[in-house]
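Lab notebook: predicted structure, single chain.

Context: the supervisor wants predicted structures on file for every construct in the current expression panel, including those that have not yet been purified. This is the next one on the list. No modifications to the sequence; it matches the entry in the shared construct table.
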Amino acid sequence: MPFDPFQVVDVGHAGLRTTRLGLGGASIAGLYDPVTEADAIALVQHAWSIGVRSFDVAPLYGYGAAERRVGLALAGCDRGSYVISTKVGRLVREPDAVREGDELDEQRPGEGGDGLYPGAADRRIVFDYSFDGVMCSVEESLDRLGVDHVDIAYLHDADRHLVQAIDGAYPALVRLREQGVVRSIGAGMVRSAPLARLVRETDMDVVMIAGRYTLLDQEAAEELLPLCEARGVSVMVAGVMNSGVLANPVAAPRLDYAPAPRDVVERAARLAAACERHGVTLRTAAIQFPLAHPAVTGLIAGVRTAAHLDEYPVAMGAAIAPGLWDELRSERLISDLVPTPA
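Prediction complete. Output recorded below exactly as produced.
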């Protein structure tokens, strides 16, 4: 098969090894629409049953719900048999715990239940990339997950807080890595330039790039991916559907968590039409495409149903005629510089 989803691959420099396919926790924490705890746990357990051994969460996802749910689902599993990653830079707080001067994340749910996580009630997210904030964040994540260490801790969306992240958060993660509480240090963002700076200026083990190395957007190929390849930094790709526009360009498509602009929808439709001409679905091409880059180690699937998760192993192993990639290049739908699946 072109890509084995359950192949065990090396991640970073700390001896971590896990499956090429991982499960992301945003959707099961109620991204866009609430998900019951029972359904979320069932999906994580389904992922385990088919062979997934990489699980990615964050305090932001469901305002603590993703960490708690994944922890419950994996509670009976051998801790040494899977890799779990979480993120730092945001703290989950009850309203009465928010202090004057705290910087609130604008993605909080509204009074009417709107926002990215409408099931998150009235909890708040506070940005904090300080040394003490990161130490507190990891301690709280361990408690929600029910584990004594995390395999990867990512600096989360630190692009607007890079100075504090480098001066405060990063030294905290180094301390935690030395203590064995964190095995590997990473950074995860939706912009590639700040990630490239972190790779240049710190000792990163792994980065996660969301939505910027996809069929729709190859921004990360310009600097980040070559830099990671040269420095031996593993790259995990997330958001390969660009928040939904590549999953379905017709039905209320989203881009970066908001309604997709018309020109993006039209481009996605052109990609879909080319795929159809070559007998492959747009989802299949979108899933396989980023894995062809030599810097990319694995893929995180953000899904909320078992049926959608099951599409990933099938798509990763599907045969795609080379003519598709030739057409996408000739139509300037993908860059001439990026590798494509063989």
